[in-house]
Amino acid sequence: MKVLIISPTLKIGGIEKALISVADGLTALGVSVTFFVCNGHKPGFDLSDRPYPVVWSGLAYNGGFLNKVKYTFSLIIRMREEIRQDTERRVLCFGDFMNPLVLLAGLWLKAKIYVSDRTSIDIKYAPISDLIIQNGKRFLYPRSAGFIAQTERVRKHMNQRFGQRLRVEVIPNAIKLIRGEAPQEREKSILYVGRLSWEKGVDRLIQAFAKSDAPADWRLDIVGDGPLRRQYEAMVENLGIAKQVRFYGYQQPPDPYFLNSSIFVLPSHFEGFPNALCEAMSAGLPVACFASIPHEAIIKQDVHGVVVPADDIDAMAVALKRLMDDPELRSTMAANNVEHVKQFEASKIARKLLDFMQLKPADV
Question: What is the largest distance, in Å, between two alpha-carbon atoms of the chain?
Fold first, then answer.
């Protein structure tokens, strides 16, 4: 059987990364995958070594309201052409903005289209954008063949909203497991990897580290870039912890940082699915996060890491100090985590997707 995966871009982003992992996992199971890229901006991911074809829309959005409208209508037509080429293919798309467009493109065609939101149910868009997105979902999501919820939180939300009109299945992200050998003695480092923007809550991690009374030989390593980097650098100076905090900027791949650190923290206000948290666990790191993110199926308290109440920076500071002071606890959590996150391997997630899309091994 064949699957058409529709990706908004090939820029470095969570949706793109997730779709590539799915494409790789499905291909490894013998599925014929076509990877369609909507926006022709300069790619951040290189798929030239992949065994599946990458098809570009030939379109690019370069800013401006009229250009956006023109691009959107042109994209719907172009996607419809691609879907129509083989309506026996299952179609898979991720993203609040993209899903309604793909479903519009597939109206009255026989193709079965599966969609998945990749943002938190708590996220709020600008009023006009939110109105368009939510109404698009309301009318078009029930026309999909199924909705993939990343977490149980999302499944409950979608069931409350759509009831029996929408088929929903919980299937987490396929995670790129960190491979490689960690040094025998890891550096005394608390690690964050991700974008430096408001929703990621890095300011809360910096404040918690400052309050944790961290020993002088421990440091906070921040890997990533974004619009708030200068603000965070100034915060570190003002808190008097500049000697213990390092900003590394964007690093690709970040694997060496995962393998060399001792603790990973994801301080986000919200997440669709915490990829970086799972990647850190696969590298043998104990983890910490706030309860505001969907942690329930990932972290068992004091077994895999520490979950503190939402927005409680003091509690996070206490958690960090506890992990820094207890190497035996870190070692136990690390061993638990390496095995625990194997459930998110691409091949295992791909099999769950095949089942949900009603593609049996005999069909492949």
Answer: 65
